[in-house]
Specification:
TolC-like, 9 helices, 4-stranded antiparallel beta sheet, coiled coil, single chain, 421 residues, signal, alpha+beta
Amino acid sequence: MKKLLILLLLPTQLAFAQQDILLNNCYNWARENYPNLKQAEIWEEITSLKKENIKTNYLPQLTLNGQATYQSDVTSVNISMPGIDIPSVSKDQYKTYAEFKQNIWDGGISTANTKLEDAILQSNLSQVEVELYKLNEQVSQAFFTVLAMDKQKEVLTAQKKVLQEKLKTVQSGVENQMLEKSNALSLEAEILNIEQSTLQLDAGKKTAIQMLTILTGQTIDENSVLKYNTSEPNMRDKLSRPELELFSSQKNQFEKQSDLLTKSRNPKVFGFGQAGYGKPALNMLNDKFDTYYLVGIGLSWNAFDWKKTTRQKEMLQLHSKMISQQEETFNQNINLLLAQQNEQISKLEKLIETDTKMVMLRTEIAQSSASKLENETITTSDYIQDVQAETIAKLNVELHRIQLNEAKEKYNLIKGKKFSE
């Protein structure tokens, strides 16, 4: 019964171990796994709190005050009139009162501040996107390293099998005293070289897989099958890099700051009031504790600021101009990288054409050498050299194919790639 359960569970375990891993999935996993992605939520929460505070500008502001004073002198009327007693105010005075202020119109500052906070949020989110996009190059490099290691291992494994088959033939000849033992030893040594190269490839693949695992936060093992769906670079597509959105949002932020400065020069209208209890109250001739209140409407306007606002707006324009220059430089550098990458793609395509011809020639030579070795017209060393040349030719074509796909992917990343599951 236990054996039956093991057999039933085995296919499921293999399915998980040999799951297909797509490059676009790795991009998305790396994004979700990146710790700084949470900054986007934090920035949104900060902006929400700031906007809630801005809304309070139109809510009544209430302050409670209290004071007790003693003054050296008070106003008095030093006139003596028959039948009239003119009271005097005490030098000790007391007052407790509540004071409120209500904005009626703040010159549009609150609205401008809200728009500025939205612009700052967009700028911060764009900065996070730029940082996240840089992860893609690391993911792509690790992904294609794994593919390259796998392809090289496939070629070496195939060549090892050929040498092992030839070793059996040579060992048979040695046993029959038709061939020298050194022939078999040379083949065994070459097989060991291939095994060493395979170990190095396994180590390199393991390192690349560890990088992918750390970047994506997914469990990727050596049995996972990495697949890349070739996507031809579209030379006509416009740039869609997140840096362009960052430049735009930064310039928009300066515009909103300039608009806020303009609004700050507008007059402000507000209502105010005061209600309290003190001695004296509003009637200065009544030297008794009494209640009082007053209400009113006010206007404030800084009519002249010595061109301070104008200079601040000029500074913002200069900052915006600097951003435009940075954007222009960025576009120039990107176009340069695209031209270089396009040339790299063209070079690899030509190399693959010659690689294919080289593999055919080297394979034919190796097959001929195998026949000559059996007829003892060449040495084992000559045969091994021809097999090595064939192996190198096959490794080159496989590496160049991987590099071509990687070059195309890099072109798309440089231009700005949209990712999907």
